[in-house]
Amino acid sequence: MCKVKDxxxxxxxxxxxxxxxxxxxxxxxxxxALKPTYEEPQSxxxxxxxxxxxxxxxxxxxxxxVHRRTPLNRMFAAVYLAGALALFYHHACTLLNSTTxxxxxxxxxxxxxxxxxxxxRSTTQSFRMRLVIHREFxxxxxxxxxxxxxxPGLNVxxxxxxxxxxxxxxVVNTALSVMAYEYPTEKISVYVSDDGGSELTLFAxxxxxxxxxxxxxxxxxxxxEERCPEAYFKSNYAYCSETEDIKV
Length: 248
Hints:
The structure is a single chain. By secondary structure, this protein is α+β, with helices and mostly antiparallel strands. The chain is 42% helix and 18% strand. The protein is built from seven helices and seven strands. The protein has a five-stranded mixed beta sheet, covered by helices on one side. The protein has a two-stranded antiparallel sheet with strand order 4-5. The longest helix is centred in the middle third of the chain and has 27 residues, at 70-96.
């Protein structure tokens, strides 16, 4: 077992368990300086003062609304089903009235093709039978939970296999973006399971542990929304000396 510990302001642990699979465990906890700050709830729509509550005057955390295209999708599915049944009936009548073996085989191959196409269409159409729109009100979370201790514990599992098919850089970016959530740091743990048992992946997370001590603090201090390092540095981010130092 190999353990790497960073004793900086943000403590990050990377642990390697060699049997039966290698598992990198990243837990981060921090002092008061790194605790996420929560601002007063603001509406997502600019200039709007709408307050969305339940019947008991409790703020909503999310809403689900059926998309207006759902009835049209269902009507299309019904028409498509009727057409498919009519087509299958035509194929059945044609096969029963076949006079030669070659004609029968040709029509039977057409029937198989149509069955495959209808099946492929049905598998995609099923997702459109009830389209919904989810809307989250993360700004109301502070109103529901009075203190940080009421936040539930959050465990995030990230699975990796072959470092050549799944580059460690992508896995590291995923782990860092999760660790940078606006969530109480003592309530969140990130587990990275490496089925390939690659030393390259372990080394990547050892380096990520050092980088995280700067990246997490930077995200919370600057209130960065795009918290995946790779995506952030590819975007049109605001230039500052601290950003360039972290990038280097």
